[in-house]
Amino acid sequence: xxxxxxxxxxxxxxxxxxxxxxxxxxxxxxxxxxxxxxxxxxxxxxxxxxxxxxxxxxxxxxxxxxxxxxxxxxxxxxxxxxxxxxxxxxxxxxxxxxxxxxxxxxxxxxxxxxxxxxxxxxxxxxxxxxxxxxxxxxxxxxxxxxxxxxxxxxxxxxxxxxx
Length: 163
Prior knowledge:
Distance between the termini: 58 Å
Number of helices: 5
């Protein structure tokens, strides 16, 4: 064991660069998660409005179900499967948990990130890029669905058409 004064100082620029990269990814993931929560709330109101729409076609109900399923799939991709977690089943870490573990394990230190932390950020970045594609497709479909509800004469719902 070496005394602290014999340990070479850490590369503070490399540490700051890694933390900045991690922070940016964490901010993007948190924003996406918040948007998914807002979409969930929108869909809940749309479902109630759809039930009160006289001209509601079966296709509108099917599309709503498909949107809810897509939203659930996006949540699992981003934050993991809460049901499997509660049952203590082995799961692959989610994008958010990978970044969260790095944030919790590295941001309070002045040491260089471990290889595992670097690899987790690489995996999370690649996963988030794939997630982003599905995320964008979902929100385009949601906007299209909002227009279809409007055309069917559905009652007003909060935040409809504000994207």
